[in-house]
Write a structure and sequence with these properties.
- It is a single chain.
- It is built from 12 helices and 16 strands.
- By secondary structure, it is of the alpha/beta class.
- The chain has 2 domains: 213 residues, TIM Barrel, CATH 3.20.20; 104 residues, Lyase, Ornithine Decarboxylase, Chain A, domain 1 (Beta Barrel), CATH 2.40.37.
- Strands 1, 10, 11, 12, 13, 14, 15 and 16 form an 8-stranded mixed beta sheet that branches.
- Helix 8 links the parallel strand 7 and strand 8.
- Helix 3 crosses helix 4, helix 6 runs parallel beside helix 7 and helix 7 packs parallel to helix 8.
- The longest helix is centred in the middle third of the chain and has 20 residues.
- Bound molecules: pyridoxal-5'-phosphate.
- The site of pyridoxal-5'-phosphate has 10 residues, from strand 9.
């Protein structure tokens, strides 16, 4: 047996249920960028759809198309990396909800031949400066959008933004900009059906940020925030485990294949333990695709050791905190080439 990433779909169902309750009455938009945070896009999307999830946050148009093929016509699929005319045409053809943070895209929509009506979610830049329409350009963008609506080329489905979730004060200021932008849209005769600005952290902690949709990635997969509340406080659980196999035992220790082409940060060497049949053992060396662990009696090739995540001594976020980063940074080190094993479905 080689290394694998073992994903527990029953645990995923419980997290989905927990997120649904936490953000209600807003709907849960399950964010599935980065291959569903490395858990494997299609199996997770299909499972979530069967569990009742009806909004997916797919990031780019290619991912949105893949989600559409997997779940059929009923789901709403939001994408927010829209590169230009080709993306717009493909996004409309796949009936995606398009996050538009750039006026030039509205001009493109006005002149393109479209295979359907564009579902527009206009993004206001509330201060992160990570794409989005600046407040001073908002009125002009609304005017262009109204033109698209009048021409039957588009509908304004939503107003959205992204907040840092780093400090409550920053988020409050961002929300004020957001609410003003929505008021301006209404005053211009446009009535967006959906407002959304929160991700996992604000969606759980701050009721006034939930609006109609909460775009939850990390918590859906049981990845807690670094330096924040624990999994049990949040009511979530890690759903995946990196399972490594013993390849050799020698005087230097027990060697494991972790099969991860991106490697774990080498700075983790000497800083965490894995569970073995003989109790915890220190991970002494971290290579690109290997780990060396302090020896234990009767270790032998083929034995399986859980490195992090579900059933391990540490979660992805625990390891992340040791090297001053966030849990996603560790979870996304799991290479797409590592076999995924789905259990508990
Ligand atoms: C990644 C992302 C999210 C999800 O963030 P989490 O903290 O993982 O829940 C939401 N919205 C946007 C725009 C994102 O890029």
């Amino acid at each position: 047996m080689s290394a694998s990433y073992r994903v527990d779909l029953a645990a995923f169902s419980r997290n989905l249920q927990r997120v649904r309750e936490a953000v209600a009455p807003a709907a849960h938009m399950l964010v599935v960028k980065d291959d569903a945070y490395a858990h494997g896009l299609i199996p997770l999307v299909v499972h979530a759809y069967a569990q009742g999830v009806r909004w997916f946050g797919a990031f780019d148009v290619a991912t949105g198309e893949a989600v559409r093929s997997a779940v059929g016509p009923e789901a709403r699929i939001f994408v927010w990396l829209v590169g230009g005319a080709d993306d717009l045409a493909a996004g409309v053809a796949a009936d995606l909800d398009l996050g538009i943070g750039d006026e030039a895209l509205l001009d493109d929509l006005a002149r393109l031949t479209l295979d359907g009506v564009a579902r527009i979610h206009l993004k206001i830049d509330t201060g992160l400066h990570r794409n989005g329409i600046r407040p001073e350009r908002w009125a002009a963008a609304l005017e262009r959008t109204a033109g698209l609506v009048a021409a039957g080329r588009g509908v304004l489905e939503g107003i959205w933004s992204h907040i840092s979730e780093a400090s409550d004060a920053d988020d409050d200021a961002a929300r004020a900009v957001f609410l003003a932008a929505r008021e301006a849209a209404r005053a211009a005769g446009l009535d967006p059906r959906f407002s959304h600005l929160a991700a996992s952290a604000a969606g759980f902690a701050r009721g006034e940020f939930r609006e109609d949709l909460v775009r939850v990635g990390a918590f859906s997969y049981g990845i807690r925030p670094a330096g924040g509340p624990g999994e049990s406080d949040l009511g979530i659980e890690p759903i995946a485990a990196l399972v490594a196999t013993v390849t050799a035992v020698d005087v230097a220790g027990v060697h494991l294949d972790v099969g991860s082409l991106h490697g774990l940060p080498s700075t983790l060497a000497g800083r965490f333990d894995v569970g073995t049949p003989a109790g915890p053992r220190r991970v002494e060396d971290v290579g690109l695709t290997t780990l060396a662990v302090a020896p234990w009696p009767a270790a032998s090739p083929g034995d399986e050791i859980v490195v992090f995540g579900r059933g391990a001594l540490h979660s992805a976020t625990d390891l992340a905190e040791l090297v001053d980063t966030i849990g996603e940074e560790i979870a996304l080190r799991v290479s797409p080439t590592l076999p995924r094993l789905y259990v508990g479905g």
